[in-house]
Amino acid sequence: MKSITAILTALEHERRGVNLLTDRWVPIKDKEDGDRPRQVGLKDILCGRDPDAAIYLWRDDLEFAVLHLLVVLTQVIAAPADAGALKEREASPMTEAEYDGLIEPYIEWFDLSHPEKPFLQIRHEGKETAIQKLFPGLPDGNNHMFFHRPGEIAEICLSCASIVPWNQANNVPSFSGGFKGSLRGGSPITVLLYHPDLRRCIWRNVLSEEVIEAHFPQNGSELPVWVTGLPVRGSAVESADIGFARGLLWQPACVELIVEEREGRCDSCGCASSRMVREFKKQRRPYEIRGLWPHPHGSVRTFQKKGKEGKGPFSVFLSLNNTIPPWRRLLDILLEKEDPADGYRRALVLTQYSQVWKGASLPMAIGGYISDQAAIKGRRHEVITLSAGWDERLDEFQKIVGLALDLKDILLNKMKYFFLRVLGSDAGKKAARKGAELFFERTERLVLTALQNGPPPDLKERLERIA
């Protein structure tokens, strides 16, 4: 049974709206009511008030989005000076006085109901859209892997209304033509460090000021786009002009939540609320970003691409698709190689971790959507741990993945030869692609286990049996 004080506090902050720095909005597992989350604040987590806090929502991608948002909030308000200061922050909770002092300059940035510049929103006269559009897999009813029926999400509380626009802005393809996607592309893979203690997990993903100064533009604007306004329609923005905080908090689209003052129960988390969101407004605002902004939560692939002025290096953040197996993507995430024709850049949070926590195992929270243009076809959000010494085993990782890919190619060539003769061109190619997907699916556990713990002596024979 919740105390009267806790209930009154929750009702009071609902009446005011939600500020992500001062209010309780983070959904965590409620020991008293296991079916629904209760909400705590960032202050509760960083100051150690709730040491057993664990993010709790009904979808793993939304839980992942909450973790990502907590990391970015902490990064913006409390970047430690150097590696030593970072380890101190990770080891012990900060005091409440420290927290209050750190957030003071940023409080207005993170007010979801600010009258002029609400968090992650641009006030405008746009088209009203059902809120379920912000839940990947809806609203068109074409993605039943995520939902039982169309229209399942009719209204949400302000806590969830803080989370789903963040997920849309950072991890999901743009709404459609004329809407911009995230600074990392349409549906990027997000890479974070994981720790079962939520407070420590957050800090392991926070970059020190030393690292920030070495890798990010120092002369760009730091103000969020909802404070300054989106780029002018049809304009071009140089990535070098985007400061660190502005880039982390980037909102690519013109979006505004429509908040209703009434009692209701959230269709997402199940919590009661006195302010509900059923719809949001969106408006096309085309503009161009020139250059790749070096986002710290994703790994980058560089290759040669032919353009109007001939071939040149082209860099993109890694994403998921059905033609590249998860074990291949895991290798891509870990590689570090400077080569304009075949290069890799590890997510900066991984690079910092390997330097600050040398010799430690590597527990990663990795998430992303599989998309076809603007349509979501699937998702993967999971924790993968590599044993200590992982950074000295990259050559071994490449051999394991290379072996599996070689067998896939042999299998695919045999299937193409057979299916093209039996089924013809189009049907044969489709059948061969399906065969490759089945090979990826059936080898996933074996190859990932080999990467995590070392290859078994009969790895090749076991892969051949699957093929």
Major β-sheet, in short? Answer: 3 strands, antiparallel
How much of the sequence lies in strands comes to 15-25%
Supply the number of structural domains.
2
Helix/strand structural class: alpha+beta
Across the major sheet, the strand order is: 3-7-6
- Percent helix among the residues? 25-40%
Overall average pLDDT: 88
Order of helices and strands: HEEHHHHEHEHHHEHEEEEEHEHEEHHH
Shape label: globular
What can be said about this structure in brief?
With 467 residues, this protein is of the alpha+beta class. It has two domains: 4-290, no CATH class; 300-346 and 393-466, no CATH class. It has 15 helices and 13 strands.
